[in-house]
Write a structure and sequence with these properties.
single chain, alpha/beta, Rossmann fold, 8-stranded mixed beta sheet, 31% strand, globular, PABS domain-containing protein
């Protein structure tokens, strides 16, 4: 059945349409075209549209091949009401930068036809997707009972013009643009690699560790940490191996825990991990256990309006009261936050202020993550945790801590 391009004359929030056409550069191969309108209603009488060619060899990546990945790309583009994704046939090996430029020129009439009527006289820009990934090898795809489909992959990352690193990553299909876990892989002997467990590369983990400087009492007795949300377990391993914490973890999905142990180096001797819901664990913890720090790294499973963290159910007042109850008087709650909006973030901070004595913030600086640190008691300015043996990448975030 022929596609009537008149349906694209107006923006229809959340509408997603995909189809294939012959590649004008290589007619024996097909291009997949996907058109998504933003779920966020715009009052602009002249909506903005952008197009993007999917990077070669990334055609089957969930970022580009699923509606959820397409949505997250769109939501990360301010003021764009429609994003047109165009991907090549993975079997077509004729691609090159020059071929992409030619393809863009030949696709301009199509992109114009797929644009709202108000934009017919404006040229739609072609955006370039860059995440530093040079190469990617998929290790396993699996399905967890709670998080759904996930992929474990080894990637080569271009840090700068002369530096590349090998990383191991965990991603969920429900949020394909969000790297759940990211750990550096180092060569041991020959062609063998293993996880580097004493180095943090995920952007918000170093700020979370820097938050330990706000613990207000002497930790000579041996510090204890409770981590809700394990993922690949990089934070738990670091706390044990680098800082000597006794670590307890809570992970809702047993398949995620299996992945952490098999691929990310999380050993049983590093942490005692409970499989279950983190909120329930906090509310039921009645054995007198007390922790110096509670670290929360949970993202919301509701991605209709984009990636966010933590889930709204975790910041209910009764949950925060339960969190405060498991901490020692000089302890801190540290939580990774990806706010949906400025209003949401301000309301979140007000909820924390209603339960805890003081509230601090670290802006991670990536335009996405913030780390909130809440103290059980008012601080006297002293720190019971020595940060001297930490790398400069962590120490710089100690200076970035702001009371709010």
């Amino acid at each position: 059945m022929a596609l009537d391009v008149r349906i694209f004359e107006t923006i229809s929030p959340s509408r997603f349409i995909s189809f294939t056409i012959p590649n004008p550069n290589s007619p024996s191969h097909l291009l997949r075209v996907a058109v998504l309108d933003s779920p966020i209603h715009s009052s602009d009488s002249s909506p903005r549209v952008a197009a993007m060619l999917v990077p070669k060899h990334r055609e089957t990546d969930w970022i580009f091949s699923t509606e959820s990945g397409h949505l997250q790309l769109l939501l990360n583009l301010p003021n764009i009401s429609r994003l047109i994704l165009i991907s090549d046939d993975p079997e077509d090996l004729s691609n090159s930068p020059a071929a992409d430029e030619i393809l863009e020129q030949r696709l301009k009439p199509l992109v114009a036809a797929l644009s709202p009527k108000a934009l017919t006289k404006e040229e739609v820009p072609f955006l370039i997707y860059e995440d530093g990934v040079v190469s990617r090898v998929e290790l396993e795809r699996t399905v967890g009972p709670y998080v759904g489909e996930m992929v474990i992959e080894d990637v080569e990352i271009e840090i700068d013009e002369v530096t590349r690193e090998f990383r191991r990553r965990l991603r969920f299909k429900r949020t394909p643009n969000l790297v759940q876990s990211d750990i550096k892989m180092v060569r041991t002997r020959g062609e063998e690699f293993e996880p580097q467990l004493t180095e943090l590369v995920h952007p918000y983990l170093a700020p979370m560790v820097a938050s330990l400087s706000l613990i207000g009492c002497d930790l000579k007795r041996g510090p204890k940490a409770l981590c809700i949300g394990v993922g690949g377990g990089g934070l738990l391993s670091f706390l044990k191996l680098k800082l000597g914490f006794e670590v307890t973890g809570v992970e809702i999905d047993p398949e995620v825990l299996r992945i952490a142990r098999r691929y990310f180096g999380l050993e049983e001797r590093f942490a005692s991990v409970h499989v279950g819901d983190g909120v329930d664990f906090l509310k039921r913890l009645d054995d007198g256990s007390k922790f110096d720090v509670l670290m929360v790294d949970l993202d919301s499973s509701d991605t209709v309006h984009g990636v966010s963290a933590p889930p709204v159910e975790f910041v209910a007042k009764d949950v925060l009261l339960a969190a405060r109850a498991v901490l020692v008087p000089c302890g801190v709650l540290v939580i990774n936050v990806i706010p949906l909006s400025k209003t949401f973030y301000e309301e979140l901070k007000d909820v924390f202020r209603g339960v805890f004595a003081e509230l601090y913030e670290i802006d991670v600086g990536n335009g996405e993550n913030f780390v909130l640190i809440a103290t059980v008691s008012f601080r006297d300015g002293n720190s019971g945790f020595t940060m001297g043996n930490l790398a400069p990448v962590v120490l710089k975030y100690v200076d970035a801590i702001q009371r709010i």
